[in-house]
Write a structure and sequence with these properties.
Blueprint: E1 2-5, H1 11-18, H2 31-42, E2 46-53, E3 56-66, E4 76-84, H3 93-107, E5 113-115, H4 122-130
Parallel strand pairs: 4-5
Antiparallel strand pairs: 1-2, 2-3, 3-4
Length: 145
């Protein structure tokens, strides 16, 4: 297994993995998708972490570093789109991606990391607790647009 940041040639593999995240359809290839992809790659605060097995992307998470004017002007990190392919779950791949994400947050001098999950499954919640997250310190609210 290799855990690393995404590379320019990884888009199709990442999108294939994302079809297992909330049953997302494979998006149409085109200029809009290409522009979005290159914008993400060029954004120094947008990181996509992937775990691959035999050249296939099988787990991933997104780390966004948000500049901040509080807490000594230290940024914070948001974690999103945590997913592992069904055939590879339970092997520590998502944990490895989250560990890599934490190292990125530390390198950026973030004072905290936050993530939200829509899952109510105790196994998912226990996974995040084991990864060092807690649900006691903050209350999350979401407004869908």
């Amino acid at each position: 297994m290799t855990v690393r940041e995404i590379a320019v040639g990884d888009l199709e593999g990442l999108l294939r993995l994302y079809t297992e995240l909330h049953e997302n359809p494979m998006p149409a290839q085109g200029e809009t998708l290409s522009a979005l992809w290159h914008g993400i790659l060029e954004d120094k605060n947008h990181h996509i972490v992937v775990a691959e097995k035999k050249g296939e992307i099988v787990s991933s998470c997104v780390v966004l570093v948000v500049p901040n004017l509080t807490h000594g002007q230290r940024p914070y990190a948001l974690i999103e789109n945590v997913v592992t392919a069904k055939a590879f779950r339970g092997r520590g791949l998502a944990s490895a991606c989250l560990d890599y994400a934490k190292q990125l947050a530390l390198q950026h001098n973030c004072y905290k990391m936050m993530l939200l999950t829509g899952s109510r499954q105790e196994s998912t919640l226990a996974f995040y607790r084991k990864a060092g997250y807690n649900s006691r310190d903050k209350t999350a609210f979401v407004q869908w647009l």
